[in-house]
Task: inverse folding
């Protein structure tokens, strides 16, 4: 199992041991039998799926006398395959976190002062429903907005649609994965989805452009990555930082930040110029190849070398190896791809490169996923909103196919096309997930209602009018997970133990609000078990059966292309040249534009993940925090020597707009370019209730005061901020 740098089996065992210790701390006492001797524990295993990140791996939880003592990967779950990542193994740290939200809270005093009084569920829900009725009457139902992240948010989305609002957004689209979906949709007619349809299991060559496999810990992909390395697959890593993945690479290309598109265009040029592309595949499935060849004729390795600072001979060597290994070559689409504002076009260049190699729909490239359709529980049709979404998707950003969280935040401030007056924020800490936190706070201060549904008292909760404590994924049912994957499957999330404190599941909150709003008809079931059983019976399963199994797999369709396949593009083919983009007046073939350079004495701020942490969702976790309790700022060793900075020195980062970070330790290393610094995202908390995480490390989100908006889909490129380094006295 590949856990990342300095995280081998020994530290994995530490996590497992710490998780058991957390459960024991939650238990508190020994159980004695009638004779006074220690009683044998009552042990059972319960199947569910994880929520420590979005990957949703299958879990088997061991429960002894009502306490979770062990979590392990479900052996029959296609995404887990019997294994969990470190975060999944440490999930008991969230279940037994002493800082958990324990009861509903209603704000007293100014927003952001974190002053609340405890309330009953009836009082809290009555308050929210009353405000929602006022907003609907005074401004229309579209003035209510839902920001959501996590599987449990589906019931709140259902509630908002029944209420009459189209304004439902996940920050994961505009702040993370959206550009790659648009880049692949404009090329192949479909995106890569989640989990991505990458056939790493069969690839002969894997190219990672700023994708940190081994640190982002997408469980299935990391397992396949480790297997690919064992098989001898050729690995290429393009990154300004020598990542965990780079340590496994045959070619590591320490690219100048912001110049990735130039490298991709040079690879496209070499494949075409030296006729290394898959000619038969391109002739059968391609559209616009001649125009692609014409437009990229000047994108030579020598041109790219001057921009990227990667030698021309290295660029050629990698392209030639791609040509030798095709079609089992996978240029990975990445996950967090909102970098510089040209991100949809950079992702499109990755898609074009895969198209030239013949990898789409071929073994070792991208398989064609299959899904399973589960009919919805019968309910009335949603009312049709009288106004379109307020975020700008489909209007200002014509190719966005999901709503933009940042766009809804902006509309709340500007009132264009109209203002939001109420937000429900489910499972996402917008202060750390949206760029420019001061803009988010400005929007919040214009609201008449802010409801936060979360497990922990994160920063956004400090600004809420009402805070609703959700129980953890180990204590609740959620909706079924119907996954499109190599083999389609259904997974059940069910309570492993009873909810602690006065926390409740999201489905219950949404249904209770619907009842108070006169929307009971949209929740026509007595409880969640009736809802789940009805849906499962429509596919010849039962809730009783799924509670035992946890997961059910179905027969897959054809995984790879058949002759005559028609792509879901206007031409029905892979569009190397995009008429859709040409009609919009933008480059039909991606073209490189250089990003802004750092001011004198500044460094480009880059950020990413730790294999132990899912951004801010796990940094208060005592189990995981016992191993990595704070982030560090990576600084090139030569730069550090010039500035008189030694390893572990205390620093502050000051960005181009004068925003200063918390104190953070220096990590002096050769493993990063001299023009950039790097932080793991999700640290530097300021929320008073996060007693473990508060003040540990630096919050990179606070330093992201500027962003470049992708003109095609509205994504927020956040690698456009620069910092200087100040030593702490």
Result:
């Amino acid at each position: 199992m590949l856990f990342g740098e300095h995280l081998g089996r020994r530290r994995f065992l530490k996590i497992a041991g710490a998780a058991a210790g957390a459960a024991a701390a939650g238990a508190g006492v020994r159980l004695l039998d009638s004779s006074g001797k220690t009683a044998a524990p009552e042990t059972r295993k319960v199947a569910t799926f994880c929520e420590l990140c979005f990957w949703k791996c299958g879990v088997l939880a061991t429960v002894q006398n009502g306490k979770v003592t062990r979590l392990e990967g479900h052996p029959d779950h296609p995404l887990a395959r019997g294994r969990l990542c470190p975060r999944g193994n440490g999930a008991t740290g969230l279940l037994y976190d002493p800082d958990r939200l324990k009861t509903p809270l209603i704000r007293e005093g100014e927003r952001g002062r974190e002053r609340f009084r405890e309330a009953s569920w009836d009082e809290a829900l009555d308050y929210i429903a009353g405000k929602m009725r006022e907003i609907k009457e005074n401004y229309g139902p579209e003035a209510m907005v839902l920001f959501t992240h996590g599987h449990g948010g589906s019931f709140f989305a259902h509630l908002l649609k029944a209420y009459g609002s189209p304004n439902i957004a996940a920050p994961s689209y505009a702040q993370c994965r959206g550009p790659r979906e648009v880049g692949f949709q404009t090329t192949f007619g479909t995106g890569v989805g989640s989990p991505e349809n990458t056939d790493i299991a069969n690839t002969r060559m894997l190219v990672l452009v700023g994708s940190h496999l081994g640190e982002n810990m997408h469980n299935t992909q990391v397992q396949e990555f480790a297997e690919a390395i064992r098989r001898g697959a050729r690995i290429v890593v393009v990154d300004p930082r020598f990542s965990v993945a780079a340590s496994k690479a045959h070619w590591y290309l320490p690219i100048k930040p912001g110049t990735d598109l130039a490298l991709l265009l040079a690879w496209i040029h070499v494949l075409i110029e030296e006729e290394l592309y898959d000619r038969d595949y391109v002739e059968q499935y391609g559209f616009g190849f001649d125009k692609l060849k014409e437009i990229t004729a000047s994108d030579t390795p020598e041109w790219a070398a001057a921009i990227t600072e990667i030698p021309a001979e290295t660029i050629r060597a990698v392209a030639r190896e791609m040509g030798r290994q095709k079609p089992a070559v996978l240029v990975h689409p990445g996950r967090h791809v909102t970098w510089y504002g040209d991100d949809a076009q950079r992702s499109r260049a990755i898609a074009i490169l895969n198209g030239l190699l013949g990898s789409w729909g071929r073994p070792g490239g991208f398989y064609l996923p299959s899904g399973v359709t589960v009919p919805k529980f019968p309910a009335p049709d949603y009312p049709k909103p009288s106004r379109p979404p307020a975020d700008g998707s489909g209007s200002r950003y014509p190719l966005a196919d999901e709503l933009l969280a940042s766009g809804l935040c902006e509309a709340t401030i500007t009132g264009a096309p109209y203002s939001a007056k109420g937000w429900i924020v489910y499972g996402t800490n917008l202060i750390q997930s949206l760029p420019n936190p001061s803009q988010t706070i400005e929007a919040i201060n214009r609201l008449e209602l802010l409801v936060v549904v979360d497990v922990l008292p994160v920063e956004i909760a400090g600004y809420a009018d009402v805070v609703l404590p959700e129980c953890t994924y180990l204590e609740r049912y959620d909706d079924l997970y119907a996954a499109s994957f190599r083999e389609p499957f259904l997974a059940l999330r069910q309570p492993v133990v009873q909810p602690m404190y006065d926390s409740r599941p999201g489905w219950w909150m949404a249904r209770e609000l619907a009842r108070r709003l006169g929307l009971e008809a949209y929740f026509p079931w007595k409880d969640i078990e009736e809802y789940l059983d009805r849906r499962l019976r429509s596919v010849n399963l039962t809730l009783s059966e799924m509670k035992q199994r946890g997961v059910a797999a179905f027969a897959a369709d054809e995984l790879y292309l058949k002759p005559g396949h028609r792509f879901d593009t206007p031409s029905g083919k892979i569009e190397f040249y995009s008429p859709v983009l040409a009609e919009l007046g933008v480059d039909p073939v991606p073209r490189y534009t250089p990003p802004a350079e750092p001011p004198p004495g500044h460094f480009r701020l880059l950020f990413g993940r730790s294999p132990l942490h899912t951004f801010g969702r796990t940094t208060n976790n005592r189990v995981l925090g016992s191993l990595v309790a704070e982030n560090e700022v990576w600084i090139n060793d030569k730069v550090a020597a010039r500035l008189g900075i030694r390893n572990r020195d205390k620093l502050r980062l000051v960005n181009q707009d004068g925003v200063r970070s918390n104190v953070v330790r220096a990590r002096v290393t050769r493993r990063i370019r001299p023009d950039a610094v790097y932080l793991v995202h999700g640290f530097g908390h300021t929320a008073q209730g996060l007693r473990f995480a508060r003040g540990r490390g630096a919050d990179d989100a606070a330093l992201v005061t500027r962003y470049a908006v992708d003109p095609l889909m509205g994504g927020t490129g956040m690698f456009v901020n620069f910092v200087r380094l100040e030593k702490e006295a």
Notes: Residues 176 and 336 are 4 Å apart (CA to CA). Residues 603-727 form a domain with the Barwin-like endoglucanases fold (CATH 2.40.40.20). The longest strand covers residues 43-49.
